[in-house]
Structures are given as structure tokens and as C-alpha cells.
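Section 3.1: Structural characterization of target chains.
Under the original work plan, the team committed to producing a structural model for every single-chain target entering the pipeline before any wet-lab resources were allocated. The record below documents one such target. The sequence was received from the expression subgroup and is listed exactly as submitted; it comprises 396 residues.
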Amino acid sequence: MKETVPLDDEIPAIGVGMLGYAFMGKAHVNAYRTLEYMTWPPPLRPELVAIAGRDDAAVGEAARRYGFDSYTTDWRELVRDERVQLLDNCGPNHLHAEPTIAAAEAGMHVVCEKPLGRSADESYEIWQRVAATGVKHLCAFNYRFLPAVRLARELIAAGELGEIHHFRGRYLQEWIADAAHPMVWRLERESAGSGALGDLGAHVIDLAHYLVGEIDSVSGLTRTFVTDRPGGSVDVDDAFEAVAQFANGAVGTLEASRFATGRKNALSWEVNGSKGSLAFDLERMNELEVCLPGSRPGAGAQGFRRVLVTEPEHPFVEHWWPAGHVLGWEHSFVHELHHLLSAIRTDGSIGPDGADFEDGYRVAEVCESIMRSALTGTREPVEYRTSAPPVVRSGA
């Protein structure tokens, strides 16, 4: 029997340090472990070096379960750990800025969960300080890495929809609709920055930017339905609605709620253009609804057709199963982190398909404009600040 060639001799390793170990931590760890053997050969071989969290027993258990070499209750130890070349920040929103900036200034590449910061000011500072170091930086808007979303982007960029007229997107959940649900950090402005707007609406806004273009102005409305919960008082929004004007002349609606009874994780969007339309529903994430009446035989038969995005020529499918064998939500993180590792390995760009920290900042400006509009009752412009100065990009 022949021996296999050790991976160490084939593919360079990258040491990963992670902040946070719960929901998003599990999703990211699964992606690192999966891409190592499914996206063969991986651009870099992730080594799970160390993980940080505030509860010693919980983070220790997570380290054993996920396969990290060590753990700590002080994220500063991650930044000082010479084994770590990539910091993956899955911590709560109030821990996005300081650890991410410190890691980048220590020479580590960084990935940070969305929203990038609790405010536009905080997001801008994160972007500026991290970009100035030259490391690779990715804001984890994972829905850019679904096959259906990437195919939609390609169709729009190719002009298949013609001039874009409309974008409408919504993200609906129900997890705090019960007034007896206890207080958690996501319901506190100091920890979260905002409620449904930054948690769910950020995804809708990023997809609007990714598919259609920059948002120029917004009219917004926010609402908090339950202000007092077991354990504390809520000071963030439970839901928001907004009307948006895009720089290219398109108009749109943006919506998110954590009070939509019956909706578990319902992200959907539709784009209408002069030549056709596209529609997507995360609860049917392997499908893209396509209406291109002028470009198909039998154009007189109007309406949408379902495209199952599992064919070999569809985005990302080369790593997975035969046609018709569908993917899951967790695979978006595999594609996202594979993209980041490829950029590190080749010194390539995170954008335009990945969201870098500038994209994270620009989403924050739209969120803040919606909040201002909700307070003033007037239409608010979205004023984006200048870009970071060019730097010499670093490799792996």
C-alpha cells in the first residue's frame, strides 16, 4: 500500500485565530474544516490555532469540539500569538472594532462578521485603520456567495436585464416576537448599535449594493414593538421599512423585521429591468427565478421560470455534487472563506465579489441614513466619506 503525501508538503498553512464560538463561530469553523478537503486543493490549509471567548468553560469546550490547539478568555492573547496569521472575528458587535484593528496592525489578515461596526463612524474607523496596514480584510456578507446570487450578479452585469428599474428586498424573522423573550445583547444599542436594521437589514442593503449599485438617498421608518423584556429595556428597532433611490436611477424598497410571525429566516429580493427580472428566496436557496421574455424562444409565453442553480457551469458548483444535488446555507461560508484564502495566497482583491471593509462601511452609512430619516421624518441623503489611501498590499 502506498503512503499519501503529507499535506504539509503540498499546501501552505495559515494559522487561524477566532474570536467567538457560538452561532457564527460554528458556521466559520465548519467552513474552514470543510474547504480543506472539499475545495481541493484549497488555496491555503487552515490551521485552527486558538479561539477566544469570555466564558472559560464554554470557550474551552468549544476549542475541544472544534479542534483548536488552545483557547483564552482574553482576545489580546490572539493578537499576540505569533502562530496566528488570520483573525476571524465572530464576536458580538461591540467587539468588532478594537480586536479587528489590533489584529490588522499586528500584521494579521482579518475577517469580521457584519455589521462591521455599531455606527458609521465606528465602521469608517475600522476600514481606514485596517486598510492602512495593507492586510486583506473581508466583511462577512455571506449571501454574496450563494450560487443563485452570484448567477444573478453575472446576468445583471452582462446586461441581460437591461436598464435596472426596481430592487425590493426584505429579511424577515420571528425570534423575538414573543414579548416574554428575555433580553440579549442584540437588543441593546451599546452592544449591537441597532436592531433589525443592522442585524438583518445590513444583508439586504449589501445585496442591493452588490446587485444594483450605490444607494443615494433613503426615506425610513423604524419601530420597536416591545420595549420592556425580562432582564432589561430594549433601545433598538424591532423592524424597519425604507424607500431607496439608487445612483443609477433605480428605486427600491428595503425591509427587515424580527417580529414576522411564521418567518424563520426569510430573505428574499427581486430586481426588475427593462428586459427582464430576477427573484430569489433564501428558503429556496438553490433556485433563481428568471424572466427574460425577449431572449428566449416562445417569448409570447410571459412569466418567470425556475432555474435550479446546480449545473456544472453555475457558480461554485465545481466543488460539490452532481447536478440536482442541492447545497445548504452553510456552504455560503465555505465559498466566502475560500475566496478570502485565495486573495491572501495570490495577493488578489477581495472585491468586487467579496465585501471588504469599505463595503461594510458603506452599508453602515445607509443604515445610519435610514435611522436619521426615521427620526426627522424627511428624506435623507447617504453621504459616503472618502476612501482610504492606497497601500502596498501584503501577501500571505
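Residues 357-376 form the longest helix (20 residues).
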